[in-house]
Amino acid sequence: MNRIxxxxxxGIKVFLYHQLLLIAAFFLSTAMLxxxxxxxxxxDAEIKQILNSKNTPQQVTLDTLTEERAIExxxxxxxxxxxxxTNVQIANYRLDSSGKISNPVLRISDASxxxxxxxxxxxxxxxxxxxxxxxxxxEEKQQAQVExxxxxxxxxxxxxxxxxxxxxxxxxxxxxxxxxxxxxxxxSLEDKRINIIENMVDTGNRxxxxxxxxxxxxxxxxxxxxxxxxxxxxxxxxxxRRTGMPVNIPLSINNLPEITQDLDQxxxxxxxxxxxxxxxxxxxxxxVKQYDLEHRKIIPWPTFFDLSYHxxxxxxxxxxxxxxxxxxxxxxxxxGNIKATDLAIKNKEGEFDAIRENIEGExxxxxxxxxxxLLDWKNFSRDAEKLISDVKNLVEQAKKHQTLLPDEVxxxxxxxxxxxKILYHKRRDLAHALIDLYFAxxxxxSEQLSEPGKGKLNAFGSQ
Length: 463
What we know:
elongated; 10 helices; Outer membrane efflux proteins (OEP); two-stranded antiparallel ribbon; four-stranded antiparallel sheet; alpha+beta
């Protein structure tokens, strides 16, 4: 009976354990399902708030923020850039102190307390100076120079990358501002289309199907507007964090400069401006000086110089002493280090070629993307400008002579808006490609391009 009772008790425990597991799994799965619903509800609430707000833009009294001013503010506010620049200054100070001859050491010996208790016996005063090895100071100086350039490259490329991010952000905000205006126009046209089709359905000129489609299109327009506003607000907040300016500050639209240099010229400009090449050249010089230092270690050379003067009790017995230590390479001819440094020179020369190949590849890739987008921008903007002009004329003629149905006129106007929307996206993509090309070239603006002949593209891509 006791065994049966124990078995029954264990069965209850197992049953309760399984029930607890089922309850825990239920609450866990419920939490996993509810959390996305709360996130979606929050996003829907933001969209609903945007849709319920007035579509008219607010009156802005702030000064216009130019792209160059945004870059200046971002550079001034970047604490990481300030830290990197400080590291460069520290390395420069260390460079000033490197490659110097060490100071001599004042040596006093044979001093005793019996000078005070008994009588003066003797005293030795001298200078000891360690002589640097042949090429040691030059190698130390070059090592400090390499450290300076390593920190310089980090600071310069971070600065250029920060400028690239600000320019990207600036171009994206301009696109979103334009898209918000287009979305507002689209909602206005969709409102008109619903009213027009509703009247046409009442008169029998359109079926109820057109009215249903019009309501669907109107809902899509409102949702697109809400999403664009959310994206615009996010990009503006990002720009505000980088520059410290208000979120709603207006931006100025600048014409995009057109790169007219060919690929070979751009590669030459990159070789001139990219700091990585200067760093590798400094490393090559360091490898050469290290080779010279290791090669000259097999030359007998003084290691220290000691000059002292012995003061005796009798001034007539004072005497001077000169000690000189010379390193005599008898057992170690330093062949391994010589071969290692010789191989290091060849390795750094290969690294120099590799850096140039990488930079050339980056420029080629960035230039290819830029040229493709530039041609696409020019062709599409030219056709879009003509299309928008034709649509405008067609709408005016249709309203004047009533050659088209009212909803067809609105459809033409909506087509013009969609064309402008694509145009703004293409301009943003072209601006990003141009900025990425700047970064690949190691420059911060088009003014750093040495070759003349830069053109300007207007809003529609024509010269």
